[in-house]
């Protein structure tokens, strides 16, 4: 997870993580509070001072010993969904142990706490439900939104909000109120990957109904049981949430997640000029994909000016990628965005998007002139043969869409084709890396949207068998760092230049820059170091543009990195300092994001 040395010279900062934690809880209330609970790791002095001596077995253990036991318990769960449920239960009992277990086994567990397993958990939300976590707002109680949001803290206690309306979840579509789990999962990643303080976050679902007939007909479904509310009432619902969140938590960064295509970009463009907000499906996917493309072009000794990009799947993610790439081309070539868009072709269900295709506003800027394609085939392979792209991106959720003939067509036109099948979960990938490499004799530069095992093949000198690692084009290497940088500098907005800076931060750390056989993107095993670099770039860009409002931000890069690391929460047990209830902070009293007692949960380490 990279170096996590702390820097006490910044211990005066509100988000500093050096030194003891003040705690006013004692006895059972302390053991049932996930933020303070250490279970068997409470020291002898703490057990006496906090009245725990009769509540715990006498052996005092280390966090590492607890992780070993928790991992053994985790390993007995019979499938990934059961493992996901086990981890969720642990999170409600002991946050430090939960995040330490994940960080020690991140490569193994990432797919369990996020895609694809989290998608299964969301689909089964109403069936595996045990207790609520997060804020549930519904379209019929708009007037209650300010009150319901206010229950989560005071003005300076929330840094990061993830909100979804559950319409377009992880490639599995409309999941209604089950979308709350994508909000909580994203916040887990912000803490795990970038050290966002877990008790200063807020997951939200905006329940406006669901168009998922399976859920509507499920007697156990927990959300509103009617079709989605749209139009003016929906817009008023969202706006009431946004304005209430800004008034109650003026420093909070709002992360929009998994909104449907008709709303995702529209809402982002509406609120971007006003507040610090971000849409991971539009911007995060675009940023990480651009980083992979830039690394691939570097390996093939090309520049963005040489790029010819085909995007297969023109939904939220596909158009978001196209936008990010277009903006980067425009910046590098010093040309307008319309001119830069001519290097990009979008294909969706009707085929290539042209001016005669039914389009939504987000797609219009990429439509090709219909007269240029009159009488021509506009399917994927035909477009590839005609435009000769060097990069192919898949965001279609159409399994096996990148057939052998499609992949071979890519290889015919460029020496080192960059092929990125990004749809997830795994079963929805356009192609698997093994086939892509086989069909291109190992020449393709591949990154995927979900994790894949390394691929062996005869691609070394003289046909020698070599093993190629497959980069995961995972938003988690970019969106947590963008959020961290924005939170720490208290950005008033998230600008295009901040996003471009974030991309450069990821691309600079591409393993492929030093070894052409290495992955195009850094892996999750070094994601904390990546997040520090991304956060540094974001903060510097925010300062340069005048949107950073925090005072005392260091100018020197090394000192800035120290400033960032000191404010990143780590899964370590900090000493507890007993304070009286009277006059104690809300955090010391255990009132920030309390998730309740531990009764009735999965059996795991307390």
From TrEMBL:
Gene Ontology cellular component list: cytosol; mitochondrion
UniProt name for this protein: Malic enzyme
Pfam family, one: Malic_M
Family (UniProt): Belongs to the malic enzymes family.
GO-annotated molecular function: lyase activity; malate dehydrogenase (decarboxylating) (NAD+) activity; metal ion binding; NAD binding
Catalytic residues, chain numbering: 114 (proton donor), 186 (proton acceptor)
Cofactors demanded by this protein: Mn(2+); Mg(2+)
Biological processes, Gene Ontology terms: amino acid metabolic process; malate metabolic process
NCBIfam families: PRK13529.1 (NF010052)
Binding site residues for (S)-malate: 424, 474
Iron-sulfur recorded as keyword: no
DNA damage recorded as keyword: no
């Amino acid at each position: 997870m990279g170096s996590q040395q702390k820097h006490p010279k910044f211990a005066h900062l509100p988000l500093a993580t050096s030194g003891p934690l003040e705690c006013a809880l004692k006895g059972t209330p302390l053991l049932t509070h996930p933020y303070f609970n250490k279970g068997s790791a409470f020291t002898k002095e703490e057990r006496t001072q906090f009245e725990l001596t009769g509540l715990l077995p006498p052996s005092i253990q280390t966090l590492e010993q607890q992780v070993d036991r928790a991992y053994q318990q985790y390993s007995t769960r019979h499938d990934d969904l059961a493992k996901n449920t086990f981890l969720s239960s642990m999170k409600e009992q002991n946050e430090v142990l939960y995040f330490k277990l994940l960080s020690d086994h991140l490569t193994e567990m990432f797919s369990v706490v996020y895609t694809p397993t989290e998608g299964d958990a969301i689909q089964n939300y109403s069936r595996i439900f045990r207790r609520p976590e997060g804020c549930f707002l519904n379209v019929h109680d708009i007037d209650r939104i300010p009150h319901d949001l206010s229950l989560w803290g005071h003005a300076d206690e929330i840094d990061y909000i993830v909100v979804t309306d559950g319409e377009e979840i992880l490639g599995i579509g409309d999941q209604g109120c089950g979308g709350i789990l994508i909000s909580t999962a994203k916040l887990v990643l912000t803490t795990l990957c970038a050290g966002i303080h877990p008790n200063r976050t807020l997951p939200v679902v905006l329940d406006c109904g669901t168009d998922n007939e399976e859920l509507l007909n499920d007697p156990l479904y927990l959300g509103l049981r009617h079709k989605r509310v749209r139009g003016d009432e929906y817009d008023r619902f969202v706006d009431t949430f946004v304005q209430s969140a800004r008034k109650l938590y003026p420093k909070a960064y709002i992360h929009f997640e998994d909104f449907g295509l008709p709303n995702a970009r529209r809402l982002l463009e509406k609120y971007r000029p006003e507040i610090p907000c971000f849409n991971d499906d539009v911007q995060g996917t675009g940023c990480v994909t651009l980083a992979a493309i830039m690394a691939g072009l570097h390996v093939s000794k090309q520049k963005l000016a040489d790029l010819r990009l085909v995007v297969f799947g023109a939904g939220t993610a596909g158009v978001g990628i196209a936008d990010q790439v277009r903006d980067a081309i425009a910046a590098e070539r010093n040309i307008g965005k319309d001119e830069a868009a001519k290097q990009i072709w979008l294909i969706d269900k009707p085929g290539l998007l042209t001016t005669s295709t039914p389009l939504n506003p987000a797609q219009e800027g990429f439509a090709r002139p219909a007269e240029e394609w009159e009488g021509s085939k506009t399917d994927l392979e035909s477009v590839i043969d005609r435009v000769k792209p060097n990069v192919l991106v898949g965001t279609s959720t159409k399994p096996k869409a990148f057939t052998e003939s499609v992949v071979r067509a890519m290889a015919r036109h460029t020496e080192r084709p960059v092929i990125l099948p990004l749809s997830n979960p795994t079963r929805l990938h356009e192609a698997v890396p093994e086939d892509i490499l086989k069909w291109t004799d190992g020449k393709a530069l591949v990154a995927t949207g979900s994790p894949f095992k390394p691929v062996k093949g005869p691609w070394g000198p003289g046909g020698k068998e070599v093993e190629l690692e497959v980069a995961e084009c995972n938003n988690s290497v970019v969106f947590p760092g963008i959020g961290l940088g924005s939170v720490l500098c208290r950005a008033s907005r998230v600008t295009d230049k901040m996003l471009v800076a974030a991309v450069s931060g990821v691309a600079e750390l591409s393993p492929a820059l030093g070894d052409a056989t290495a992955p195009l993107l850094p892996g999750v095993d070094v994601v904390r170091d990546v997040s520090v670099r991304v956060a540094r770039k974001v903060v510097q860009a925010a300062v340069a543009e005048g949107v950073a409002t925090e005072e005392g931000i260091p100018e020197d890069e090394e000192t800035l990195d120290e400033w960032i690391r000191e404010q990143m929460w780590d899964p370590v047990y900090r000493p507890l300092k007993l304070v009286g209830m009277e006059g104690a902070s809300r955090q010391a009293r255990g009132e920030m994001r309390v998730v309740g007692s531990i009764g009735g949960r999965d059996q795991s380490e307390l």
